Amino acid sequence: MSTTTVTTPAAGMTRTRTIVFAIAGGLAVGNLYWAQPLIEEIAGSLGVASSSAATLVTVTQIGYALGIFLVVPLGDVLNRRKLIPAVLAVSSLMLLGAAAPSFSLLLGALGGVGLTTVSAQLLSPLASELAAPEQRGRVVGTIASGALIGILLSRTVSGLVAEAFGWRAIYVIAAVLAVALAVVLYALIPRLEPREPIRYARLLGSVFTTVAQYRAVPPTLLISGLGFTVFSLFWTSLTFLLAAPPFSYSVGQIGLLGLAGLAGALAARRAGAIHDRGWSVPATGAALALLALSLAGAWLASGSIIGLIVIVILLDVAAQANLVLSQTRLLTLPGSARSRLNTAVVVSNFIGGAAGSAMSGPLWSAGGWTAVIFAALVLTLVALAVWSASRTRLAAVA
């Protein structure tokens, strides 16, 4: 028997590894959203306007998009068994810095959190590489859904922790969890064959050439990015809606609504398996159509918490299925540039997410919930138009 330490793709992605990667991805991506239900609380604590506090989510997402571009491509050339724990260790320091005494320091720390909490996007390409081809969609879908569940649960957890211990406590807890994850993943990530080294500047430039190499990539990036813009715009604006009359909810109550979104995330977990069956393209169109219908329902249900809970479930099924299908399509493309393709899709998503968060404050001030929903519907219809015009390109991958 051979004693080589190189793990083959078919044997490398076990069920245990899949579950742990999904949990790790969820905990890492959750760091981006601790502040989302705490906007009003942070604003009052640090003496700033709510519209200013809303920029905390925007800055974190911009930092994340930058971190994805600068760090994730390294997964195609460096030892990921060392790279991923190292990134987590640096992220823990940034999270500790977020327990800041002033708004300017908090803003800078959260930008640093965004820049360094990229381990989930290093794990997805690694899982795609390790998985057997016939299981790749399911494995990637499970890990991507773990990250999406982390986004949703982060709102609930941060709201409850803030009510019990103050808003700074969640960042200290997250820093401890990041260190624990670094240790676990170092033990769990297998040893792989070393990759051919590439100069860093050339590596970053190759992200763009990789995107241009495949005809299906640009429309996939646009569809995915628009979907995440809508997702972020909706959830950030929902905080304003629920904090105002007739609801006047506390941060803990607002955070609990994330549990409704969790049901949608669990349903969207099957999106990767849909890709494995060859239904990726029609399923993407169906997801975007459901997203548009959900937004229309969100406008009609603006005064009913029961109606909003139902809409949150449907909207999250739609938005997250679109995200999982888009990412899975790209990570099933051949070659050794999966980290760079993942870089492209996640940067696109989080530029869109930052735009959605940035638009939420001005739209709410200008026209309330109606203005928010109208803008989100327009973006969704644009995504549907791109999907309709690009079905042949997308089918070549699916």
Morphology call: globular
What is the alpha-carbon Rg in Å? 20 Å
Per DSSP, the total helix count is 19
- Report the β-strand fraction as a percent range: under 5%
Residue windows where pLDDT falls under 50 for at least 5 positions: 1-10
Strands, count: 0
- Please provide the ordered H/E string of secondary-structure elements: HHHHHHHHHHHHHHHHHHH
Q: In terms of structural class, how would the helical and strand content be classed?
A: mainly alpha
- How far apart, in Å, are the first and last alpha carbons? 38 Å
Average pLDDT rating: 85
Fraction of residues in helix: over 70%
Largest sheet: none
What descriptors fit this protein?
398 residues; mainly alpha; globular; disordered N terminus
Summarize the structure in words:
There is one protein chain. The protein is mainly alpha-helical and 398 residues long. The chain has 19 helices and no strands. The chain has helices at residues 9-12, 15-30, 39-46, 50-53, 55-71, 80-97, 103-116, 119-130, 136-165, 169-188, 200-213, 217-243, 251-256, 258-268, 271-276, 280-300, 305-331, 338-389, 391-397. Helix 6 (80-97) packs antiparallel against helix 8 and helix 12 (217-243) packs antiparallel against helix 17. The chain starts with 8 loop residues before the first helix and ends with a helix. The model is unreliable at 1-10 (pLDDT under 50).
